[in-house]
Amino acid sequence: MSDKILVTIARQYGSGGHEVGELIAKEHGFVFHDKSLIERAAEKSGISLDVLKNADEQTTPSFLYSIAMGNFDMYPLSINMNPYDMPINDKLFNLQADIIKEEASKANSVFVGRCADYILNGYKNVIKVFVYADIESRAERIARVEKVSLQDAKVLIYKTDKRRANYYNYYTSLKWGKSDNYNIMVDTSKVGTQGAAKIISEYINQIKNK
After folding, report:
1. Span 5-208: which CATH code?
2. CA atoms of 171 and 169, how far apart (whole Å)
């Protein structure tokens, strides 16, 4: 089991969680992993990058989901299904899980999203973070970055958070955003991304100084 320091960041859309992860990685010299894991998965599997991007953070249609819901008619041969016949979203999840574990064994790392907190559960030095913020500050950030109206930004936030929650809840059987699942929950609308990074850094330093 890896003894590296591993920071996993789940985040509400527009909370600045990705930026927090970048700040942490830069300050401590950790390797930073985000959606680039999809590119790694494409290289490893030979599956088209576009196909994997379309499957990212999607949960259905899914072999695993069909089993959970009892919908066996969709996959009548599911019990003996070859992994190569697995739906693309399940295949992507498994590919990313393998890559996350590989990277966790190599170097101190920051992982943004990808259910990394669940995948690395049981590893020695995992800091599980959830970054959130109030809806108004998130909408302002998204409106600025995506160049959309505040109302459209709120719609994007609702849809993206719902997709992330469904993805996480489905693949982990846990509840996205529930405090029990994390070591640190930080509100960037109160402390900013720099402040959030500082809080997490203090936690990292405690582990380093053990």
Report:
1. 3.40.50.300
2. 6
What whole-number percentage of the chain has pLDDT above 70? 85
Residue 165: which of 130, 139, 209 has the closest Cα? 130
Q: What is the spatial distance between Cα 69 and Cα 66, in angstroms, rounded to a whole number?
A: 5
Q: Phi, psi (5° rounding) for residue 5? A: -85, 125
**Cα–Cα nearest to 112, from 23, 201, 205, 179:** 23
Please give the single-letter amino acid code of residue 140: E
- pTM for the model: 0.85
Instruction: Identify the CA nearest to 35 among candidates 88, 96, 89, 102.
Output: 96
Is residue 22 within 8 Å of residue 50, measured between CB atoms? no
